[in-house]
Amino acid sequence: MTRPSEDDLIARYFAPLAISAGADGLNDDAAVVPPGEGDLVVTKDMVVAGVHFFPDDPPSSIVKKALRVNLSDLAAKGAKPAGFLLGLGLPPDWTEAFLEESARGLAQDIEVFDCPLLGGDTVKMPGPLTLSVTAFGYAPRIVRRRGARPGDIIAVTGTIGDGALGLAVRAAEREPAKAPAWVAGLDDRHRALLALRYMFPMPRVRAASAVAAFASASMDVSDGLAGDLAKLLKASGVGATAAIDDVPLSESARGALALDPSLIRTVLTGGDDYELLVTCPPDRFAAFASAVNAEGLDLTAIGRITAGEGLVISDRSGQAVDLGAGRFQHF
Amino acid sequence: MTRPSEDDLIARYFAPLAISAGADGLNDDAAVVPPGEGDLVVTKDMVVAGVHFFPDDPPSSIVKKALRVNLSDLAAKGAKPAGFLLGLGLPPDWTEAFLEESARGLAQDIEVFDCPLLGGDTVKMPGPLTLSVTAFGYAPRIVRRRGARPGDIIAVTGTIGDGALGLAVRAAEREPAKAPAWVAGLDDRHRALLALRYMFPMPRVRAASAVAAFASASMDVSDGLAGDLAKLLKASGVGATAAIDDVPLSESARGALALDPSLIRTVLTGGDDYELLVTCPPDRFAAFASAVNAEGLDLTAIGRITAGEGLVISDRSGQAVDLGAGRFQHF
């Protein structure tokens, strides 16, 4: 089988995506980041087949997820996208069909998120498909994890747990023999919605301006709400109380929980939400929520920052719940 | 064997390297690039064990090369380093000794090149060790490949061919049975010097200001002088003549060529030089060379840009030399 050279491959699939002047049509070894105002925020997340996604996930899911997890980090820091670099490690069995579908998917996200491809690198990978995205954005001021203060309200965008439940659905599709009972019990529509949330996470880019304007601390929820909140608390040197009943759930997640209440642990500690976890002084929360709402997203209060250390999560009866290690680790 | 978690590993080995305020001690998902003037130039090169380096190369060589090939791209664009992100895909057999040596090596380069670690990502890699560096720099204006004009002088920094010959020396060390005769014939010092040039390429960061001030076109020589010059010509829509005898060679390379004159092909088409290939109008060349000299580097004219297409390389007798495909392809 004859395959295109690296130059041909770039010219055919990626140059059409490089519409920013700074990319110079991908005819160079470097790019210029479009100028903007405020802090230039950069983030880099690598995703590897078999670790961060299933090797047989649709190519558009793989490549969009690689970009979107980075845009999620930018949004959490209050930054709007300005462009990205794509590092692509292609395993021996790569196909042109894969690249074609990937390029088509990327083209959609470049438009949706107004985030041009600026450059990158394509290499042979004698191992699993690997994508390394570096994304750039501008924030009026970067919002760190470490700004939470006692009394601040803790809130999340969207709904929590769909990504982790979607991962379980996707795993069950691949190995039906190992599928847990709740997956079979759930109706088709909810199963499909959860799998889509896992395969196509939606970075909350539209909330970035509100985060920059109102959040005292912020991060995205990628490794599970409980564990990520614990990280934010540690960085800020504070504690928190949160109520399970206040955590916003989708109809699909509620359906799954009705079939198996023990899934609450998956919901709170599973990964792949890519919602924003923010804190804000109580007197500014209403304005924050309304700014987020204006972008078509929900912002739901789930707890309060306390002085001291540790996270106490309580159930409906007010009892503290022990989530154990409580953190999904990709690494 | 108990291994540190990703957070522990970052805290132990990489946080001490993140001395820039923008890195926030690596306690966040994103960084702020230190502000600067001019074009913000970004570049990203991935390197993979078994493709771009030998898996048993010293850890400091691997990690320094991953950074330096990116700094070489910045220098070629006229940009001085402002910081970098490190993506690290660790294979199942990673060791703490590897990370310790890598961190020590990186610390040296961070100081030498004044290029702080800003952030990155560490992931499990069920495959070969993979490093993906994104480097940032500022140039008064980015110098592209496409600016060469007929009449311009073509020049290179340093010496050409040492990297490719060093790769052969390194390969011979690993498989002595397959070593070519010239490797055994070369004296120990030259063998060692060539291997060092391969393992520790020296990005011409100090020439960046002169490139920005004088070069009409520029790129680094990473895939072989002949092939990279052909790329520059194609991007600029011009042709060139060059003389083999004018290509600057190190004493070590001359020694190797004396033992095997056919190595001239390796010298001109091998990769891993990481010298700068520049063009400049003839009336500005003396000032360009003197600005590069002031930084302790040589700049040697090797040819002229011509109208039309194609690269004609001539030997001592003025005969055109056919280098064949003439390009080393990592991909």
From TrEMBL, chains A, B:
In which residues is Mg(2+) 2 bound? Answer: 45, 73
> Annotated pathway, please?
Cofactor biosynthesis; thiamine diphosphate biosynthesis; thiamine diphosphate from thiamine phosphate: step 1/1
Chain residues that bind ATP: 120-121, 145, 222
Q: Where does substrate bind?
A: 52, 272, 328
User: PurM-like N-terminal domain: from which residue to which, for each copy?
Assistant: 28-138
Q: What is its EC number?
A: 2.7.4.16
Query: Any idea which GO molecular function terms this record carries?
Result: ATP binding; magnesium ion binding; thiamine-phosphate kinase activity
User: Where does the sequence pass through the membrane?
Assistant: none
- In its keyword annotation, does this UniProt entry include Kinase? yes
Alphabetical keyword list: ATP-binding, Kinase, Magnesium, Metal-binding, Nucleotide-binding, Thiamine biosynthesis, Transferase
Q: Which InterPro entries match?
A: PurM-like_C_dom (IPR010918), PurM-like_C_sf (IPR036676), PurM-like_N (IPR016188), PurM-like_N_sf (IPR036921), ThiL-like (IPR006283)
Chain ranges of the PurM-like C-terminal domain: 149-313
One Pfam short name: AIRS_C
Catalyzed chemical reaction(s): thiamine phosphate + ATP = thiamine diphosphate + ADP
- Residues bound to Mg(2+) 5 are 223
Chain positions recorded as Mg(2+) 4 binding sites: 29, 43, 73
Q: Where does Mg(2+) 3 bind?
A: 29, 73, 220
One Gene Ontology term of the biological-process aspect is: thiamine diphosphate biosynthetic process
Asked if the record carries the keyword Transport, the reply is: no
Residues that, per the record, bind Mg(2+) 1: 45, 121
Q: Which family does it belong to?
A: Belongs to the thiamine-monophosphate kinase family.
- What's this protein's function? Catalyzes the ATP-dependent phosphorylation of thiamine-monophosphate (TMP) to form thiamine-pyrophosphate (TPP), the active form of vitamin B1.
Q: Add the further remark from the entry.
A: Reaction mechanism of ThiL seems to utilize a direct, inline transfer of the gamma-phosphate of ATP to TMP rather than a phosphorylated enzyme intermediate.
Listed name of the protein: Thiamine-monophosphate kinase
Q: Which organism does this sequence originate in?
A: Phreatobacter aquaticus
Which gene is this protein's source?
Answer: thiL
